Amino acid sequence: MNYIPFIDLQKQRKVLSRTLESSIKKVLDHGKFIIGPEVERLEKKLSNFTGSKYVISCASGTDALKLVLMVENIGEGDVVIVPSFSFVSTAEAPAFLNAKPFFVDVNMDTFNIDVESIKQAIFLLKKNKMKPKAIITVDLFGQPAEYNSIIEICKNENILLIADSAQSFGATYESKNVGNIADYTTTSFFPSKPLGCYGDGGAVFTNNKTKADKLISLRSHGKGKNKYDNVNIGLNSRLDTIQASILLEKLKIFKKEIKIRNNIANKYNKALKLYFNCPEISNHCTSSWALYTIKTKKRNKLMNALQLKKIPSSVYYPKPLHKQVGYKKFPRLNKLVNSESLSKSVLSIPLCPYLSERNQEFIIHTLLEFHK
Questions:
Q1: Alpha-carbon torsion, ordered 246, 251, 256, 261, to 10 deg
Q2: Which long-range contacts (CB under 8 A, 24 or more apart) does 124-130 make?
């Protein structure tokens, strides 16, 4: 058995090779490498896909979060509630702008930000005569957060809701597409994401035209009428035209890929659920299955067993954010039990649209053999 790729981007490239090469060649021929016509075309396609009125592409998912916070003037001393069990970008964006990420816990079953934990954080902040300016949810591993409950909290408390959907683009919540649920949605086009380019890239989704116009300014050095008219302090955060051309081709097969991801995830669940703690998807959601993540108390032993069979596995994430050296100084709830527990037990195994049936069966067989 040859080594199984964790995410097989090369097989996807072969499927799209002719159209990708043609699309990239068009950019090379017209030479508009920054904010070329493909960028605007991609933004329109993403708007149609999600139902969000305005899509503003940018250089990365991390920059997308920064841009949203900047457009809302969130900065020095402002509190932003974030889950501790997440990639660092979620906390990095507010911290970069001198705001204070406030760490809360996640749900053990969905891995997403815990609603009761949000309520506890708001109560504690009020007790100290403080109020969060925003909540950043994270749709971890592909499943949307519990948005109805979180939106109700945000409305009652007048808090901005930002959905960090770097891993859930293509998923739905109560039949609504990710990208059209929160006040703002951000996503990432990092190569390993469900919809990924061949470098860094990201986007912001909003239904507010005034905010969208300012986001366009902020991503390009705060420009006004032209690049030498600077009306805001912004970033250099534009999506390259070549990356947009790649995403346009990948978007054409994206729905088909999401369907395949779901089929593989269902197959895993059916075969493994009696023996492993498998991921659960809420009835009112669909997942984009960016990652298939189980929980096990024998993680290191299982990783070694998989490695011996040339099956890769990975841990997302081995250390919660409140325990990271750079983030220990920021406020948090006293106990973040679930975040700490998950960091010791989660393990992700290969799942991508180009994982062969043979390899799927081999992975399942290896996991079941380990359990015996």
A1: 70
A2: 124/333, 125/79, 130/79
pLDDT digit string, tens, across residues 111-166: 999 999 999 999 999 999 999 999 999 999 999 999 999 999 999 999 999 999 99
Asked if 109 contacts 281 with a C-beta cutoff of 8 angstroms, the reply is no
> Based on the domain organization, do 271 and 188 belong to the same domain?
no
- Given 252, 286, 315, which residue is the final one in a domain? 252
Whole-Å CA distances, 158 to 104, 154, 180, 203, 347: 19, 5, 19, 25, 37
Same domain, 151 and 297: no
Domain shared by 163 and 311, yes or no: no
**Cα distances (angstroms) measured from residue 320 to each of 136, 303, 315, 327, 334:** 16, 20, 12, 10, 14
Q: Which helix (H) or strand (E) holds 306?
A: helix 299-308
| In a shared domain, residues 41 and 185 | yes
- For residue 316, give both structure tokens: 């997302």
Based on the fold, state whether residues 73 and 93 are members of the same structural domain.
yes
Is 364 exposed, middle or buried (CB count within 10 Å of its CB: 0-12, 13-18, 19+)?
Answer: middle
Could you list the residue range(s) of the whole structural domain that residue 274 is in? 254-371
Q: Counting Cβ atoms within 10 Å, is residue 157 exposed (0-12), middle (13-18) or buried (19+)?
A: middle
Residues 170 and 66 in one domain: yes
What pTM does this model have? 0.97
Q: Where are the alpha helices (DSSP H) in 189-238?
A: 209-218
**CA distance linking residue 133 with residue 162, whole number of Å:** 11
Q: Is residue 13 helix, strand or coil?
A: helix
